[in-house]
Amino acid sequence: MKEKILSSGDMVIRQDLWQESPCSACFNTPCCRNLPLAPLKLDRQSDFVNLILSSCYEGIFPALRKSGDWTVYLSRDCSFLDKSLGKCSIHKSPGQSLICKSYDAHKCWYVDAFNHEKYTTMIPFNTSMMIWLEKKFNFIQHGFDIRMDWNELCESSFNYKSIVSGQNASDVFPWISRTLSFKKSREEKFIFLPPYKRPEHKNHFELLSFRLSFPGVYLAVADNCWAYMVISSLNEFKLDMIRSEYYPMLRHKDGEFSFDSIKRNLRPFSETGEQWVILQRSNIELLKSMTVFDSSGNIKRLPSSSEILEMLKFINPDLAA
Fold first, then answer.
1. 294: exposed, middle or buried (C-beta count within 10 Å: 0-12, 13-18, 19+)?
2. Is the bond preceding residue 195 a cis peptide, omega within 30 degrees?
């Protein structure tokens, strides 16, 4: 399932003064605490495995929208969120992502979607709720061809829910090495996000900048594929819940979000050896400067992993692997 990437015509800069925008009266600041990671579908049993496995990681939850689309979210405060004011600390600055600058706060989707009083436009699920949902509608037995009354589903899901708070990860993720071996990438603490594509247009860098604003989210670069990499922790208790209900031999690497999925589908390789080059948000402008664009902003050439690593070593040799 492809992600929606805004075109340049969609990105109208909306830079109201914070105190004059609806954001100043928003108590929960859900847009700065819930990062959409990846769209997923639910058409077959393997899709169900992907969705329910994602819920086993701390701060990760799948959510169902009224449109019928599933999205996996990260519940984690943006690094630039001023928690005392509920305000973006880089609002109106050049460093703020254009995706944030173009968002129309006067028609905020997040307010209804993350309503703590009731579900209306989106339902967030944890592991036990995913099991409850499948049992209630017998998804697997019916081949996932089930039509649900949305209002009824919202009400019954809200009544059943057991709220799991997302962790605040702003201070718990140390800087990791500039490189990460493909072998180490199989560890349960790393989640890799589909669709594992390299950027194709200048605006894709805005999505990179936006996602890497959240702590513990990095960009893993190989020469034939790039991936978002999230550092989290696998909750074995949740995994055991799934095993007891469905799949006794289920493992971390069986899901869409593991390195094994990337290896199976894309066979990543790198000039730097069997390893990713790991980037954080502060490296995005460097990455952009090394990229060749045509007059329409389409990407003609991306730098190789070895070129990126050499430039990182040159700029800051103390942080290079």
1. exposed
2. yes
Residue with tokens 């180490």: 184
- Amino acid occupying residue 254: D
Helix (H, G, I), strand (E, B) or coil at 314: helix
Geometric angle at alpha carbon 75, from 70 and 78, rounded to 5°: 120
Summarize pLDDT for 248-283 with one digit per residue, the tens: 999 999 999 999 999 999 999 999 899 999 999 999
Per-residue pLDDT of 226-246, as tens digits, reads 999 999 999 999 999 999 999
Q: With b meaning 16 or more CB within 10 Å and e meaning fewer, what string describes 259-291?
A: bbbbeeeeebebebeebbbbbebebbeebbeeb
* Residues 167, 59 contacting (CB under 8 angstroms): yes
Q: What is the largest CA-CA distance in the chain?
A: 59
Alpha helix ranges (H) inside the chain = 45-54, 98-101, 109-113, 127-137, 150-160, 204-211, 236-245, 259-266, 284-289, 305-315
Give the number of other Cβ atoms within 10 Å of residue 90's Cβ.
17
Question: What is the C-alpha to C-alpha distance for residues 111 and 293, in angstroms, rounded to an integer?
Answer: 37
Q: Which two tokens stand for residue 169?
A: 């990860």
Rg over alpha carbons for the chain, rounded to the nearest Å, is 20
What is the C-alpha to C-alpha distance for residues 260 and 114, in angstroms, rounded to an integer? 32
